[in-house]
Amino acid sequence: MDTDGGLDRLAAPAASKRLRYSALNPANVGRLLPILSDPKVAGSTFDLPVIYTLADAQAWCASDPGDWRFIVERRDNGAAVGMVGAYLTSCEPGARTLEVGFLIAPAQWGRGFATEALESLLARCKASIPGVRVTSSAFSDNPASARVLSKCHFARRGVRSIWSRERNTTYAVLLFDQQTAPEPAPRPKP
After folding, report:
1. Amino acid 9: pLDDT
2. How far apart are CA 4 and CA 21, in angstroms?
3. Which of 34, 78, 121, 128 is 20 to 30 A away from residue 103, measured at CA?
4. How far apart (Å, rounded) are the C-alpha atoms in residues 30 and 85?
5. CB 87 within 8 A of CB 69
6. Is the pTM of this model over 0.90?
7. Looking at per-residue confidence, does 41 or 92 come out higher?
8. pLDDT-based confidence at 49, cuts 50/70/90?
9. Could you tell me which of 116, 120, 158, 117 has the C-alpha nearest to residue 136?
10. For the purposes of burial, counting CB atoms within 10 Å of the CB of 151, is it exposed (0-12), middle (13-18) or buried (19 or more)?
């Protein structure tokens, strides 16, 4: 079965002001191991375990080749600061839906990297799949991720309960849909 609805692999987002992106794969996922194994990161995701080994990371990376995942790197020094990704949740022509996500190393929080990386991913997704609906989610106790989504023109559409492996419980998750970015106001003629 064609898991991506006939779509080719999504190319890495174009480099942004401070960041560049490379496709995540089992051979390079080790660069993210310090981030993926951080309990603060695992606690803000739905399925990462607390103790994360290179073998876990490689297996996760190879588990779903239909996902589009990218390492987020600083342009100035090449250091990995996190990842962004997307996967198709609906492949129906005219109703394609992508869910996007992001994670950033705690040492890099508060620097705008999540917003910059998500904006780059969204631009690539919209250019590659015209008319696609884009969704995302965040734990209800993660206001920073909700702010990132808001900055990227997402609006909250609801709440659902989801099982969190790290939290070992069912937890409330905020659901978001991306809205069309507002058009700039016309400038008055001089």
Report:
1. 65
2. 21
3. 128
4. 17
5. no
6. no
7. 41
8. low
9. 158
10. middle
